[in-house]
UniProtKB/TrEMBL annotation:
Member of the two-component regulatory system PhoR/PhoB involved in the phosphate regulon genes expression. PhoR may function as a membrane-associated protein kinase that phosphorylates PhoB in response to environmental signals. Its EC number is 2.7.13.3. One of its GO terms (molecular function) is phosphoprotein phosphatase activity. It catalyses: ATP + protein L-histidine = ADP + protein N-phospho-L-histidine. GO terms for cellular component: plasma membrane. Its main location: membrane. This is Phosphate regulon sensor protein PhoR. It is found in: Cell membrane. Residues 41-261 form the Histidine kinase domain. The chain holds residues 180 to 446 of 446 of the full protein. Keywords: ATP-binding, Cell membrane, Kinase, Membrane, Nucleotide-binding, Phosphate transport, Phosphoprotein, Transferase, Transmembrane, Transmembrane helix, Transport, Two-component regulatory system. The keyword Signal does not apply. GO terms for biological process: cellular response to phosphate starvation; phosphate ion transport.
């Protein structure tokens, strides 16, 4: 049996003194279990497309295929390698975000340009995924500037917008908006009429590789890392990620920026 370390803490609660016994190793054990899970997840995510790829390579090597059939296989292979590239890019992004403070390249970023880029990406993705499209509405509100890193802010916002597009069925409504709040804070918000999320999943959504609908995530090019990236970017910018959703009622993801990071532009 493994030794269990017990530590004793003396806590003061007002005039009262309480003795707390706790297992000190719990946090360490938890971190170690999370690391193991993460490595297992990454390996699994890489192994799946690799297995498919090597199967196709073997087929191409052994079967005398006609040109159209060959091209079909090559197309499927390109898809799998794209999937691995996206995964590796997301992993690198995450490790950069986790390992460093906000870089010196932070400056003032216009919310109008961020929203416009977000819109372009969301429309392109919607055209690709939804046969009869989505109703996509963008509201740039009172245009402001945000103190931060352009690429990071864009990646957080477009992750939220593209999730809405990816999980909302064809014909659904997606609203993306920026608003300056009365107290000087700023709110970037993505609302969708998609499937919604049961409350027990909500606190876990920003965990790496946590997915509710695994097949929908894969089919639409998801890595399971998007919301983990959003959470890190949000924290680095002193902002708060809020998730409101109910099963069958759609979802609303918002990033609320503190007033100190929001600057209103003259009209
Ligand atoms: P993924 O690449 O799987 O989309 P994310 O980290 O971006 O990974 O999201 C984690 C999970 O949260 C998704 O797999 C999905 O189950 C759920 N999710 C995210 N956004 C939405 C949304 N707008 N509507 C419903 N479910 C969502």
């Amino acid at each position: 049996a493994r030794p269990v370390k017990l530590s004793v803490h003396l806590h003061a609660y007002g005039n009262e003194r309480r003795l707390l016994l706790s297992r000190d190793i719990t946090a360490l054990e938890l971190a170690e279990a999370m690391r193991r899970d993460f490595v297992a997840n990454v390996s699994h995510e890489i192994r799946t497309p690799l297995t498919v790829l090597s199967g196709f390579i073997e087929t191409l090597q052994t079967l005398p295929l006609q040109e159209p059939e060959r091209n079909r296989y090559l197309g499927l292979m390109a898809q799998q390698s794209q999937r691995m590239q996206t995964l590796v890019n997301d992993l690198l992004t995450l490790s950069r975000l986790e390992g460093s403070p906000l870089p010196d390249t932070a400056g003032w970023v216009g919310t109008g340009a961020l929203l416009a880029q977000c819109e372009q990406e969301a429309r392109a993705l919607s055209a690709l995924l939804a046969p009869s499209g989505h109703r996509l509405e963008f509201d740039a509100g009172q245009v402001c500037e945000l103190a931060g890193v352009h690429n990071e802010l864009l990646s957080a916002m477009s992750n939220l917008a593209s999730n809405a597009v990816r999980y909302t069925p064809s014909g659904g409504l997606i609203r993306v908006s920026w608003m300056l709040l009365d107290d000087g804070r700023g709110r970037f918000e993505v609302q969708d009429s998609g499937p919604g999320i049961a409350s027990e999943h909500i606190p876990r959504l920003t965990e790496r590789f946590y997915r509710i609908d695994r097949s929908r995530s894969r089919e639409t090019g998801g890595t399971g890392l998007g919301l983990a990236i959003v959470k890190h970017v949000t924290q680095r910018h002193g902002a708060e990620l809020q998730i409101e959703s109910q099963l069958g009622q759609g979802s609303r993801f918002s990033i609320v920026f503190p007033a100190a990071r929001v600057r209103q532009l003259p009209a």
